[in-house]
Amino acid sequence: MLTPISKATDFLCISGAAYISQSIVFHDSTTFSHIDGLMGLLGLMLPFITFRFISVYRPFRYDSALASVMRVLLAWFFAQLVLAALSHAYPGSELRRHWLLWWTAIAACALVAGRCTIHALPSLLRSRRFAPARIAVVASSAANGDPLMRIAQETSDAFLPEVIFDPSLPHDTIIDQIPVVRELSVFKQLVRVKKLREIWIVNPPFEPISVEHLIEEFRDEFINIRVLPLFEESMPVWPVVGDFRGVPVLNVLATPERGWDVLPKEIFDRVFALFALLAIFPVLFAIAIAVKFSSPGPVLFRQHRKGANGDIFSIYKFRTMFDGANQPGSVVQARKGDARVTKVGHFLRSTSLDELPQFFNVLKGEMSIVGPRPHAVEHDEYYKNLVQHYMFRYRIKPGITGWAQINGYRGETAEIEKMEARVKFDIYYIKHWTFWMDVKIIALTVVKGFMGSSAY
């Protein structure tokens, strides 16, 4: 709820600072050129690009005021550095440089003040719009505090329990200063005394929940009775209520439905792959010659991999091993000093240049630029019984690079722990995917480079 307010505040701070600093530096309007005007427009747009990259607009409840301030300042200073570099290439940059310095300083102060004010809004206003909603909770095994903790986790502290009804308790108690009662009559009385308008029944899904007595008791009052299903934390995605061919359903374990949101990714993948192949064609040609002369055998190596929803496709890579190194039906991961890898192949694997032909897989629609890395089918059969939710990675298209790879999990995954970590990163990507997250991963892949000690 505070994010739109934050965006509007940031824009006012940045645009206001631009106007004030312009008035300080450009005393005569004739000295303000059209280039200065273009730089000003660019300066209003650039921050909101860097803000996305640095996740400035993550929900405020997940951040402290200090962390939010540091993040917005980092994004602002980075945007201004880019603007200063562009401005330096055009004539008449002396006055413009002073303008940018004043603009940077004034906006930084305004952004800090704006962030602190927005973080203080909920406690300052204390209104229904900002304060957590007050609820009554019906839950079993409430004495250990687990329902409260799970409510806080799954609702991001947007709701505040005021009373809990747990008929399984031997006696009434208090948890985190919240009364927990075992008698329905006491619970009803507290709901009315506290003037609560929400009753939440918290229970694991698919277990019978009796609500008739609550409905009967509160049928003439304007109290909402809702059920909050608590799923296991190990679930790969949070269950959501969706629509399947016009029928409302609870998606417990299903391929993410993103609708039109995925269209920019599909278009971007094809365009990026096409331009990448055109740009690196000389490199591909040179590598193909090097592979051909390194050892007898084909230039390209093809291997069956799983794609979206388990569909099998042939992945393209430059051959890095001697022809026939892998026995049919079995795949052994390359290890450090592996005798099967050619000298040219070692260089290609360590720099990930052997992966470049996969842009053709992207053009064919079998892969994406960003997504979980696909493994050999034989590895899938091995790991799916050892790593929890391993196969959920294939609910979306695999990618050339991914969230796991930029976090250090590329190359060999001989240990189960490494594969588990890679799967966790992949599932995090599936849960939190946005188009701008893809752009961030691509940028980090380029910034960090292709070199890696774990690839050989």
Key terms for this structure?
15 helices; six-stranded mixed sheet; about 450 residues; alpha/beta; Rossmann fold; 3 domains; flat; two-stranded antiparallel ribbon
Number of alpha- plus pi-helical segments: 15
Biggest sheet strand line-up: 3-4-2-1-5-6
Apparent shape: flat
Number of separate strands: 12
Membrane topology: Multi-pass membrane protein
Main location: membrane
InterPro entries: Bact_transf (IPR003362), EPS_sugar_tfrase (IPR017475), Undecaprenyl-P_gluc_Ptfrase (IPR017473)
Subcellular location: Membrane
Description:
The chain is α/β, with parallel strands linked by helices and 456 residues long. The protein has 3 domains: 2-124, no CATH class; 133-230, NAD(P)-binding Rossmann-like Domain (Rossmann fold, 3-Layer(aba) Sandwich); 261-448, no CATH class. The protein contains 15 helices and 12 strands.
Summary?
The protein has helices at 2-25, 34-53, 65-88, 93-125, 146-155, 184-193, 212-217, 263-279, 281-294, 343-351, 358-363, 377-383, 403-406, 416-432, 435-448, and strands at 133-139, 159-165, 173-175, 178-181, 198-203, 224-229, 240-244, 247-251, 300-306, 312-318, 368-370, 399-401.
Q: Which secondary structure elements does this structure contain, and how are they paired or packed?
A:
Elements: H1 2-25, H2 34-53, H3 65-88, H4 93-125, E1 133-139, H5 146-155, E2 159-165, E3 173-175, E4 178-181, H6 184-193, E5 198-203, H7 212-217, E6 224-229, E7 240-244, E8 247-251, H8 263-279, H9 281-294, E9 300-306, E10 312-318, H10 343-351, H11 358-363, E11 368-370, H12 377-383, E12 399-401, H13 403-406, H14 416-432, H15 435-448
Parallel strand pairs: 1-2, 1-5, 2-4, 5-6, 11-12
Antiparallel strand pairs: 3-4, 7-8, 9-10
Helix pairs in contact: 1-4, 2-3, 3-4
